[in-house]
Amino acid sequence: MKILALDSSGLVATVAVVEDDNLLAEYTVHYKKTHSQTLLPMLDTIASMIELDLDSIDAIAVAKGPGSFTGLRIGSATAKGLGLALNKPLIGIPTVDGLAYNLYGTDKLICPLMDARRSQVYTGIYEFVKEEFHVLDAQMAVPIEEIAHRLNGYGREVIFLGDGVPVFSERLAELMQVPYTFAPAHMNKQRASAVAVLALSYAKAGKTETAEAHMPDYLRPSQAEREREEREKAGKC
């Protein structure tokens, strides 16, 4: 099965093509340009380099959130457009799950941290047991103090990754009561190849959707929505 995967949920833009157990191509950029400027050119470059016929793709995987609201909209819109044009199913992968999957095979607890602003993180707790991926605490938006408390309760060594690490590393040093480490640079950001491999297992389980039905999962309201709710509440007072 051949999967085209996209992830523009965070600071990184990344595109990959995986066929069964082979990574055919991956293009990842962490730089100043916006994802709307980079995602499709990255796909075009990959397609050209591996002589990819997009009609040969079986499904399109996309990191569906949480993450940057703008990044998620760009990723979802790109995936939906491709799905409609090619008449291919979509596979939405939880962003934090895909990030955790970078650390395949570790015996430590895995805790991705994405900076969600307002002193919160998008996070979750994961582990691998005999090469099987287990979600211990599903992705959530919580204060850093809450995820540290949950991790301390497990009493096991933790490995952190994600763009929230540099933001919260000093606070973690104050909060963590169990041993922990940080993933190295080649594993600590979103990778479309991880999204693609997870999507293969989703496809085998029948977890696909139509392009029309796909929606991002923001986990919490946008800033504009929060401000509107606050104005409405103020107006009722």
Structure overview:
Helices cover 37% and strands 30% of the residues. It contains seven helices and ten strands.
What keyword list fits this structure?
globular, five-stranded mixed beta sheet, 7 helices, 10 strands, 237 residues, 37% helix, alpha/beta
Major sheet characteristics = 5 strands, mixed
How is the largest sheet built, in terms of strand order? 3-2-1-4-5
Radius of gyration, whole Å: 18 Å
Task: Determine the mean pLDDT.
Answer: 93
Query: How many helical stretches?
Result: 7
- Number of DSSP strand runs: 10
Q: Structural class given helices, strands, pairing? A: alpha/beta
Please give the share of residues in helix: 25-40%
Order of helices and strands: EEEHEHEHEEEHEHEHH
- Straight-line N-to-C gap: 57 Å
Catalogue the unreliable spans: none
How large a portion of the residues is in β-strands, by DSSP E? 25-35%
Shape: globular
List the SSEs and their pairings.
Layout: E1 2-7, E2 13-19, E3 22-29, H1 35-49, E4 59-65, H2 69-86, E5 90-94, H3 95-100, E6 109-117, E7 120-129, E8 132-143, H4 144-154, E9 158-161, H5 165-175, E10 180-182, H6 192-204, H7 223-236
Parallel strand pairs: 1-4, 4-5, 6-9, 9-10
Antiparallel strand pairs: 1-2, 2-3, 6-7, 7-8
Helix pairs in contact: 1-2, 4-5
